[in-house]
Amino acid sequence: MKLFLLEDDDAIGMGLKYSLEKEGYEVVHVKTKADAEDAFSINTFDICILDINLPDGNGYDVCKYIKEKEDVPVIFLTASDAEVNVVMGLEMGADDYVCKPFRINELMARIKTVLRRSGKGLTNSGAERSGILEIKNVRIHTGEAKVGLLDEATEKEEMVELTALEYRLLLAFYNNRGVVMSRSQLLEEMWDVSGDFVNDNTLTVYIKRLRDKIEKDPANPQIIKTVRGLGYILEK
Questions:
Q1: Within the chain, what is the greatest distance between any pair of CA atoms?
Q2: What's 173's domain CATH number?
Q3: 8 φ, ψ to 5°?
Q4: Residue 10 three-state SS
Q5: What is the number of structural domains in the chain?
Q6: How far is CA 180 from its chain centroid?
Q7: Coil, helix or strand at residue 188
Q8: Which pTM value belongs to this model?
Q9: Would you give the distance in Å from CA 66 to the centre of its chain?
Q10: Beta bridge partners of 58
Q11: Which tens digits make up the pLDDT trace of 49-88?
């Protein structure tokens, strides 16, 4: 997993690079806007961590440059949690932000969550290489963030309309297939940086809506199953 780190503070940058490499990431660390653009002209990355204040510009400009080239997940590092900083970052296409000072475990958790949401944490086998994930008759087109239902008799695919949060929920189940997910784990996956708060009651509604859209018999679900007293599971 190749990670791009833009941080002009030597102490923070070196510490982050060391910690990230211990977690198994291949890290490219640069300190300026100019070096960031040069790095992206010759490399591709799975996720980017961008500091906002730079000696020759700012992380917002770098984020805009990156997003124009390809849709790579971006996490901003900001010295302030002021609303204007957060909103500007999100409008630039950022997926999350972390305020300095932060604990390294918090950043690691945010990275993993953003990668799971974007589908970057998936393996490279079979249909996954083509950007199509399959669950029984459900097909997730990760490149287009669309979902279709395959008619096994005709082999025709009918697209279904999912909201952004329903799609995120489906990806959360897929990325953790074979594992029972508690409601608290699902709520963490569904946390929305755009400000759409997801609580326990709302989660129940989203699971029901998702089942209504993808299950042949929502009253007797065979894709997203309930594990009484524990949570839910999408079996392998």
A1: 61
A2: 1.10.10.10
A3: -85, -15
A4: helix
A5: 2
A6: 20
A7: helix
A8: 0.53
A9: 16
A10: 53
A11: 999 889 998 889 999 898 888 888 999 988 766 555 667 7
